[in-house]
Write a sequence for this structure.
């Protein structure tokens, strides 16, 4: 048995990513249909915790759970023109059942606007029915050309929240709330550095007035959109006839927003951002096992094991997900490497010395530091460690992100920086339709995509558009994407 | 506004059932594709709690979560002969994507044996990989001829657990464990009376050696299978080549079980068994709101509301799902009826008198009794109420079930009893294949189905088969089913 369970240089990100997914048993890509993967227990626990965190956050902010069918009648999909143009090329179609050919094709939902809004029309009558804020946790299906596990699946997991309001102002506030929901979990609780953009006109959600999104800059220098929220205005309510009787006696179209939380992509982001050459590094809230206890055999094995069981019990009662790795056929060294590869944030080593001194040895996964902790202060020490690890993951992530944002002042600089990976910041003529030609030129010649301008800070453009030389209206961020 | 938000005689069960689903906003059947329903928040909270309860129970018993794709390649489905014969007539097929026709058809999973077992073949190598106990929570799709909300959906929610073992004995123990899992949640925690049967040969899961199932007797006298577990033996491991290297150096086929927990059907059972003419009665563990506080306006409204908020806070901290219904435009009377219809187990009424006397008025949903409780004993009193309601729901359910089991000693009695609804207990020649003709005769002439024999108690058959007159080998239960 080799010393290292996993040892892959992360600078070869593509190799690292597929190896850690397989070695840590997060998923299996050998299902036999391209773009469809099997999520294994270690991955599924992470998925479940992500769902739990986001669902709690959504409910705290007034959303309620619901579940709409997986299939959508073709005629629903046709109702909103931009929407159908955007999604139809990616739709999987159910056309037969048993021995019968169905009278009409049913789409596997690529997103659920067209499943939900005909029902919103029925449910919304008066002002009292508003706001209506529903979410559903489900998988969606898109016929992607180049699938990649968790990053681009033909079936992937997400949460979609669909809200309806009496006024535009409420809808505008909602998209900001959604952005805050993404940030409060993905960055605040899980330490994944993200950036918030308003997307250019040509990169909006099909049918939206505005699209806002969070991107994660992956280790290979490409970006991955992990969540997006869309101000739909009255585009869909007019197409689907969703009206309410206002207090002034008038029937009016509601204002809508929709919000997609990419659970699968967040798994990819979490793994990729935090992991190192030894494997996963999982932040406490999503770690399937938060603390692993490894007994050191030798003299006094019985007493050591008794102590281990006692600690296990104590930590479980304190609310931690804890595992005691008793397996006698494996050495402590093997167990250290194994659980490091799995990303377990804290390990406790217990041998004769620890039992006698009542001072335990803790190892934290992120820095691999070992810390001595008095037994009676264990629970407190682990709580502090959890917080400190989160702080340190955040700091590391932020620093790495910052170092990969560079300002370009010429097209050739832009091209070179994109080749090297990361964001390039530049002046740009317009994120309205009139800027599309410049964006197309960037994409064609550099494979870079204009991600939009930041909404969390205001950046005053100076000088001229990096492509056409007209006066710059926005500071945009450009990056290659998955 | 009418006094009654809901008042439907439950003896007309079919009307009661569809009205309560709509009035309590559990689901909406107007989605536009027969057999596909929309689950609304009040229903979805119940669904989520059911999932939470069963997932916790499965994990406690060594199962781990996983998630397999929604689509299954047609050739996988063909591997096990009985299985494909049983399920293929019910399969929905995906045949197109975007503008392309797929090279092979993909089934929407009707159940996931054929999605999972090719992976089990890859994962299981040695004895150390066993037992493998995985579950997934998902929806499945079956082209049912006569769909009915939650009872028979073309898309329905369930959990499926698939286990593999080195020995037959372990697999046999597993099906008993599964039966206990069903009972420990559905009966012990939620008070739904169930009966456990071993199904006759002709009513087994396609590909199984034995099938065991729990049925619920619905108010209209028909039964509904809510969960079933199957001893698969080596039928599937031989078809899918799932082998392990045993300690004796031999490669052997694993023994398998699979277990389906019908979440959608349990929603139907819960609603139907416990509800009354005033609406839902929800047991505490699945009630979206467990305690509703209704302020009585009048003098001292400010003090009353302050007290209500304080109680709300206190109960929330004690871990209850609590709601304070402040809406000023609705009368307390309306609120009482409304929350009774919704099935909220406990209501607290707070007026000036309650504030001054520090004695609160509690109303329990099941018996509609009102109880006086000293304010300082509130939390304790609600905990006791929760237990007492469960005891009382169980007792009521058990009594009702018992009263609807009757012994038939002739075919004409059998026919008459089935017409009146409920179970008929009778001697039967054989639940092996040789009894199929007798079962077919029963079905043809009475629409009754032989549910099998009980496995929780031993019932010694006396006399002869109710159909053919040969010596009875089993006491079977016969009922009409959904």
């Amino acid at each position: 048995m080799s010393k290292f369970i996993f040892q892959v240089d992360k600078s070869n990100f593509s190799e690292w990513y597929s190896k850690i997914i397989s070695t840590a048993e997060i998923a299996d890509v050998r299902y036999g249909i391209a773009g469809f993967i099997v999520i294994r227990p270690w991955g599924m626990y992470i998925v479940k915790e992500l769902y739990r965190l986001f669902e709690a956050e959504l409910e705290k902010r007034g959303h309620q759970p619901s579940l709409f069918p997986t299939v959508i009648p073709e005629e629903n999909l046709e109702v909103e023109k931009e929407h159908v143009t955007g999604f139809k090329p990616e739709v999987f179609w159910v056309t037969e059942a048993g021995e019968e050919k169905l009278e009409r094709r049913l789409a596997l939902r690529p997103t659920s606007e067209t499943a939900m809004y005909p029902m919103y029309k029925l449910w919304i009558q008066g002002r009292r029915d508003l706001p209506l804020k529903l979410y559903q946790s489900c998988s969606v299906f898109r016929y992607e050309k180049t699938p990649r596990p968790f990053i681009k699946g033909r079936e992937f997991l997400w949460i979609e929240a669909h809200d309806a309001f009496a006024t535009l102002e409420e809808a505008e506030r909602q998209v900001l709330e959604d952005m805050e929901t993404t940030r409060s979990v993905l960055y605040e609780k899980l330490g994944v550095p993200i950036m918030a953009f308003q997307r250019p006109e040509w990169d909006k959600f099909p049918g939206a007035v505005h699209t806002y999104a969070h991107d994660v800059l992956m280790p290979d220098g490409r970006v991955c959109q992990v969540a997006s929220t869309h101000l739909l205005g009255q585009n869909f309510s007019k197409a689907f006839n969703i009206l309410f009787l206002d207090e002034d006696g008038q029937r009016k179209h509601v204002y809508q927003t929709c919000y997609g939380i990419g659970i699968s992509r967040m798994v990819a982001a979490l793994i990729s951002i935090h992991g190192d050459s030894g494997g996963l590094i999982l932040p406490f809230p999503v770690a399937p096992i938060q603390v692993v206890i490894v007994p050191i055999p030798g003299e006094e094995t019985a007493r050591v094991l008794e102590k281990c069981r006692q600690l296990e019990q104590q930590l479980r009662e304190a609310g931690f997900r804890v595992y005691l790795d008793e397996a006698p056929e494996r050495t402590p060294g093997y167990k250290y490497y194994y659980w490091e590869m799995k990303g377990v944030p804290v390990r406790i080593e217990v041998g004769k010395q620890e039992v006698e001194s009542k001072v335990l040895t803790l190892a934290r996964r992120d820095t691999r530091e070992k810390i001595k902790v008095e037994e009676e202060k264990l629970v407190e020490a682990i709580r502090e460690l959890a917080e400190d690890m989160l702080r340190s993951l955040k700091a590391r992530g932020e620093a790495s992100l910052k170092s990969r944002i560079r300002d370009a002042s010429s097209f050739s600089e832009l091209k070179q920086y994109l080749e090297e990976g990361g964001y390039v910041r530049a002046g740009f003529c317009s994120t309205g339709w009139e800027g599309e030609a410049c964006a197309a030129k960037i994409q064609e010649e550099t494979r870079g995509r204009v991600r939009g301008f930041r909404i969390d800070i205001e950046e005053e453009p100076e000088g001229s558009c990096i492509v056409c030389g007209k006066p710059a209206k926005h500071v945009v961020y450009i990056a290659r994407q998955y």
